Please model this.
Amino acid sequence: SIALGVIAIGVLGMIAAVTFNREPAMKLIDRLSVFAPERIRPKLNEVAHNTLDGFAVLANPRVAALLVGWSLANWLTVGGILYLGMEAFSLGTGFSAAMFIVVATTFGFFVPSSPGSFGVYHAIVINTLENVFGVPRSVAVSYALVMHFVFYLPPILLGALFLWRERQVWQRSQLLDEIRLLQGGAKRVELADSEG
Model:
């Protein structure tokens, strides 16, 4: 966990250096891009410059502090949920193992996969638990399936609930539009009758 801390501090330091020294970073990227194949050089430069533009928001200390705070809270919450699952399965691996799985699955999501990362998530969790923490494969499989279910079921149910509620709102809205249209037509008929 010390190594992960050192890596995180190094990455944050690089981001801070790039954020506050944007022009020298742009020049460095332009100089280093000559080593890339010529056909991908323009796209590589564009991606690098867009990335630097994205970091520009971090120059505002308040925004940067909020971003770091919310990110840390999010990662710790996910790690806490995984840790509670580990306790429920009596894995005896500790909170650092939960955080290791958070990091491993985060990097694993870079691999293109099916919606919901079915298969990729399970493979990463199972192999990490089995090969790094010595958890028996059958227990690791059960843990991966249950934790994926825990992370995906609440948003699916909430999404379905809000979709249903939104559908109700849209139906009422369309009904009101139809009533207004009919009322407008009725007023026109009354006006025509009164003029005639």
About this structure: The chain has seven helices and no strands. The chain has a mean pLDDT of 83.
